[in-house]
Amino acid sequence: KKEMERARRTRPSGPIRYRCSFRNTVYDVLRARNWKETDSETNWDIHWADRDWVYEVFDSMHLESWQRLNHYRNGRELCRKDLMIKNLKRKRRQLEKEGSFEEAQGYNFFPVSFVLPREYAMFVEEFKRQGGVWIMKPIGSAQGKGIFLFSRLSEISEWRTDFKSKLDGNSQGQDQPQVEAYIVQRYIMDPFLVGGKKFDLRLYAL
């Protein structure tokens, strides 16, 4: 009954109301459209929110049918590198378990991947089996920060030593910060290029 009542609601009359957590190009575009800016937590038509607001507020509120937000619930399950890999692998295993092997093959589009330090032993086993060039990426960084290539295990010895020292410190009850987690993937040696250069596409849909 409540869902039917919500479906019958219509947007209040008046100018489009927006809220923006940033002062950037998106904010400039919203202002240029002569829409009405608001700082209300709930009374808006469009909210360009930061991740903290989404994690702290979004999961506990209901959106009206006319409200639009630039994030979706549990978006970090796809946007954070380690969680995306986890979910892709999980879906592939599920399809294989159900006998849908052809559909499962569609989930082979991403390279061999491991989450470190949790899957370090499995990674080393795969590395010793095939070697090659690998790429390390911090799970929570962006804009290419902290990414590096390596082709020998000795090249990540500094990261491994740092992890082991912090692990030993924690086991002895010392207050040590957690070592930063990484995704390690087999490097794609022949990527699709545009004008001889690698590229990525980042699109906003509103």
From TrEMBL:
UniProt keyword list: ATP-binding, Ligase, Nucleotide-binding
PROSITE patterns cross-referenced by the UniProt entry: TTL
SUPFAM superfamilies named among the record's database cross-references: Glutathione synthetase ATP-binding domain-like
Record-linked InterPro entries: TTL/TTLL_fam (IPR004344)
GO molecular function: ATP binding; tubulin binding; tubulin-glutamic acid ligase activity
Keyword NAD: no
Gene3D superfamilies in alphabetical order: ATP-grasp fold, B domain
Pfam families assigned: TTL
Domain of life: Eukaryota
Family: Belongs to the tubulin--tyrosine ligase family.
Protein name: Tubulin--tyrosine ligase-like protein 9
